[in-house]
Design goal:
alpha+beta; membrane; 3 domains; ten-stranded mixed beta sheet; transmembrane helix; Membrane_comp_ABC_pdt; ABC3_permease_C; FtsX-like permease family protein
């Protein structure tokens, strides 16, 4: 007998039941439709944002047929692949001679007859902006030509038509604070251009570039540099030609082979889209051999499985409540001769009907929202969609996933409904059923095994074990949730009426409460795991961070030397445009003999200056040499850091040599340098400098309060000025200087080892020069202030350099944590709201009884709030605990890697903290549950209208 008539009746009953219970049906449809909407929108966005081969060619060639370019080996015969990317000289071809390399390639001679071409060349440049100065790239390309459509599009104004006109990308123009009609000056040749319009590159909306006509930037710049040797000549890229082939012919593979004979590489649209057979390609095939298809498939399957799990956990209780509210109808099916299978079919048909409705609604909403937010998505991804790409089979698969999810969510309620006796169904009695005693035992075993596997994976450095163990542990917690929910009922014995009823209702209806708690737990666990790992990694980076400057300071250093430095003008530029606090602390550099920073690779060499470090205990770093590895592994993280930053070890780490001091790190300065940059507030140290005694910041270089300074006074032939000041033969002097030794904490001061008074350096026969200033900042500088300061420094004319502190920025980490918290919060609110709505529908008889015995109207409102609070708070707390398992395991993996690095280099830190994201946890554990409870209470009616007698 065909089963179709029975299923037809089941679907008819399910459809009518869904139409009758519109609120519950809409809830289930929404739960199924939301993930389907998200996956549909993600699929459409991914496929549309991922350019096709034709779109990639348009982004590179515009509407041209091909791009021709010469190679750097001269006009030698080449072989290339059809993609126009890989090329080589034929095997056995001798290398080019210098004459061949110098011989230019006649690229236009390789064009097919009847072609039209455009030249393209770019050059890096520094240009003026409304705020100051910005670096960018200028392309000489006639972007007004129709051949560029699809690659460069005008967004405002007009294309450049004259040699003194220029256009810029929208991002550059906005960042520079420019407007159409403003003048843009290319620094160096000081050529001025009028900004005529803004353009965008559809394939790269964040491009930062300027466009001018061919011959309007590079050639005049080169002529100016030829006349004025102080101007640096331009460094343009190799020229390229965009070619439009003969009408209807394009650029064929035969044209490419002919161009290869002349040493020209060609990328043709026609050939790239329809490559020739391998037999016609002289060059052997090349393949990267790397594919991420397996990893991508695994990731997609994992995400899909998580989405299905979330839907089933949230929608399952809704079907269970629906089945209970329709138990009389299901009992009538049984009383009329319907089998248990037919009763199950009715419930499963309900899942299929609502699943299909959710799938259709989700797919339709996904299309609509993707089209609506397409401009915003394009701005976010950084490229325009060529078209909205739809893969029918993928969309159909997503819809089927929603349908199957609805059926899966109804599976457990269908099994329970099929097991109920006809008498129970007709009388409305639920019967008494005990919770499974096996499931919690299995859950505890799975939790213990999962934690063990995850920890083993972390110690062994195997992320597969970490992932598998974490999932197993989370499933173990899921198995324990019914027992935990049942235990909640015992907590309300001493509580007021409404929280006591809420806890007992959650414990009595575990089939409704446990899945919602599990859904909240799953979302919170993932968010807490990522947030914990992110916070821990950020804390590690902050712990290991080594600043290049003392925090809260900037340093101005000269690029020119001697009288050309003109530091007073540079100092004025910084002080007038930067948010400095207080006066400048001027400093100088010191050297012996000929200045090695000026005269490079001279025949007679340069002078040297060295601060000699004594040997022995207290002077040699324990983390270097014999026994260093064993010592490093025995130290705690704080002990290791203190030793690394100790005077004996601080110079063993690589640190940038700053302030023109060379390896000796000695600067010329006074008490203001100690106060502003070193931040050593010590009157004794200031007095020592005033008396001519150097202040030593690293005590490892002192012995008995003295340092050894070794100077080689060697002069080369070009250094006439210093030779005149110090005539005679080359000599080496070793001086013992009494110094003031600063506390050990100042040994790690970036860039400085000792501050020497100028009169002391002159007494020792050393050369000194004013070299820069230190400034304390009142606050961080804005972009506009930085650009203005750089422009003022440029006007000062000495190319002075302003060095800022490389502070640790955690804006991105904070954004990630906020997004995770919002995601988990939304899921928590949704799950709690769903459970509260089901509780109200499922406990209508209890609420009616409360009203009948005289309960105040506000009881309904407060009861809904506490029911919502119970689900949200329980799920968040369990999720926080579950989320710690993968986070801790992954940090153990990081610890393993850090210990391996420490064994290789004992100076490396193995500090691998586990930091709880208390802001995220607090938001999820306190704010979200309380908000859920308040919303549930506010949206619940406090009065009940009795239409008929309940029961």
């Amino acid at each position: 007998m065909s089963p179709l008539p029975g299923w037809r009746a089941a679907f008819r009953i399910a459809r009518r039941d869904a139409a009758r219970a519109k609120g519950r049906s809409a809830l289930v449809v929404a739960m199924i439709a939301l993930p389907v909407l998200g996956v549909t929108a993600a699929d459409l966005t991914y496929r549309s944002a991922l350019p096709t081969k034709a779109e990639e060619l348009t982004a590179e060639l515009g509407s041209a047929d091909a791009r021709f370019m010469a190679t750097s080996v001269g006009p030698l015969k080449l072989q290339q692949m059809p993609d126009g990317i890989n090329w080589s000289t034929p095997e056995g071809t001798p290398g080019p001679t210098p004459e061949e390399q110098a011989q230019p390639v006649d690229v236009p001679a390789a064009f097919p007859e009847g072609s039209r071409s455009l030249t393209e060349r770019s050059v890096p440049a520094s240009v003026t902006t409304r705020h100051g100065i910005a670096d960018t790239e200028i392309s000489e390309l006639r972007i007004s030509d129709p051949m560029l459509r699809g690659r460069v599009e005008l967004t405002d104004g007009a294309f450049p038509r004259k040699p003194n006109e220029i256009a810029g990308t929208s991002d550059f123009v906005e960042a520079a604070g420019l407007s159409i009609g403003d003048r843009v000056t290319v620094r160096g040749p000081e050529q001025a251009y009028t900004l005529t319009g803004t353009v965008e590159l559809p394939a790269d909306l964040r491009a930062d570039a300027l466009y001018a006509l061919p011959g309007s930037v590079i050639a005049p710049w080169q002529k100016t540099a030829d006349r004025d040797k102080s101007i640096l000549p331009p460094q343009p890229s190799d020229p390229k030609w965009l070619v439009k082939g003969p009408p209807g012919a394009g650029v064929t593979w035969q044209d490419i082979l002919a161009a290869n004979e002349r040493g020209v590489v060609v990328k043709s649209r026609q050939v790239a889209l329809n490559p020739p057979p391998d037999s016609e390609v002289p060059m052997s095939s090349m393949s990267s051999g790397y594919s991420t298809e397996t990893e991508t498939t695994a990731a997609v399957l994992t995400v899909a499985a998580m989405a299905v799990l979330e839907i089933v956990l949230l929608a399952g209780p809704a079907f269970a409540v629906g089945a209970r509210r329709s138990r009389r109808q299901l009992g009538l099916v049984g009383s009329c001769g319907g089998s248990r299978g037919q009763v199950r079919a009715v419930v499963l048909a309900g899942g299929a009907v609502l699943g299909a409705g959710g799938a259709v609604a989700g797919v339709g909403a996904g299309f609509g929202l993707t089209a609506l937010f397409r401009p915003m998505i394009e701005d976010f991804t950084g490229n325009r969609f060529g078209e909205l790409t739809v893969r029918p089979w993928e969309i159909l698969g997503i819809a089927v996933l929603g349908l199957v999810t609805g059926v899966l969510a109804a599976l457990a309620p269908a099994i329970v409904a099929g097991r109920q006796s006809v008498l129970e169904s007709l009388t409305g009695r639920r019967g008494t059923r005990r919770s499974s005693r096996v499931l919690p035992v299995i859950g505890v075993i799975a939790l213990t095994a999962g934690v063990g596997i995850a920890v083993y994976g972390g110690v062994a450095g195997d992320t597969a074990f970490v992932a598998g163990g974490s999932v197993l542990a989370e499933l173990g917690v899921l198995g324990c949730i019914p027992v935990i929910v049942g235990f909640l009922g015992r907590l309300g014995r001493r509580l007021p009426l409404t929280p006591r009823i809420a806890l007992r209702d959650a414990a009595r209806n575990r089939g409704r409460t446990a899945p919602a708690v599990a859904a909240v737990m799953a979302a919170v666990a993932g968010s807490v795991a990522i947030a914990t790992y992110t916070s821990s990694s950020a804390a590690q980076h902050a712990y290991d961070f080594e600043p290049n400057l003392t925090p809260g300071t900037v340093a101005l250093t000269a690029s020119d030397i001697g009288a050309d430095a003109e530091l007073p003008r540079s100092r004025a530029a910084v002080e007038q445009n930067y948010p400095v606090s207080g006066k400048a602390a001027d400093f100088g550099r010191v050297w012996a003999g000929s200045d090695c920073s000026v005269y490079y690779e001279e025949e007679n060499g340069c002078g040297t200056l060295e601060l000699v470090k004594p040997t022995g205990k207290g002077h040699s770093c324990p983390l270097k040499g014999k026994g260093a590895k064993e010592l490093a592994l025995r130290l705690s993280a704080d002990e290791h850091k203190r030793m690394v930053n100790s005077p004996a070890c601080t110079d063993e780490n690589y640190t940038m040599v700053a302030f023109g001091t060379g390896d000796h790190k000695i600067i010329i300065g006074g008490a203001d340098v100690l106060d502003t940059y070193v931040q050593l507030d010590d009157p004794a140290a200031a007095k020592a400098l005033a008396d001519g005694t150097p202040v030593l910041l690293n005590s490892a270089y002192a012995k008995n309060g003295e340092v050894t300074l070794k100077a080689t006074h060697l002069y080369n032939d070009r250094d006439k000025e210093n030779r005149a000041q110090h005539p005679g033969k080359a000599r080496t002097t070793t001086d013992r200087l009494k110094v003031y030794v600063a506390p050990d904490r100042f040994a790690a001061t970036p860039g400085i080892r000792m501050v020497m008074p100028e009169k002391t350096a002159e007494r020792l026969g050393l050369h000194v020069e004013d070299y820069g200033s230190f400034y304390a900042l009142g606050r961080d500088a804005t972009d506009a202030e930085s650009q203005a300061a750089y422009a003022a420094l440029d006007r000062a004319g000495n190319r002075a350099y302003l060095m800022s502190s490389n502070e640790v920025f955690r804006t991105q980490d904070d954004t990630i944590l906020l997004i995770l918290a919002l995601f988990a919060g939304v899921v928590t609110l949704g799950a709690a709201a769903i459970t509260t709505g089901l509780s109200k529908a499922d406990a209508e008889a209890d609420l009616t009884t409360l009203s009948a015995v005289g309960a105040p109207p506000g009881v309904r409102r407060s009861l809904s709030g506490f029911q919502c609070l119970v689900v949200a708070l329980t799920g968040v707390l369990l999720g926080t605990v579950a989320g710690l398992v993968p986070a801790v395991a992954l940090r153990l993996t990081d610890l393993r890697g850090a210990l391996e690095d420490m064994r290789a280099d004992p100076m490396q830190s193995a500090y691998t903290p586990i930091v709880m994201p208390w802001e995220t946890v607090g938001l999820l554990a306190v704010v979200v549950p309380v908000l859920a409870g308040l919303l549930a209470a506010a949206l619940t009616s406090s009065r009940l209208t009795l239409a008929r007698r309940a029961g």
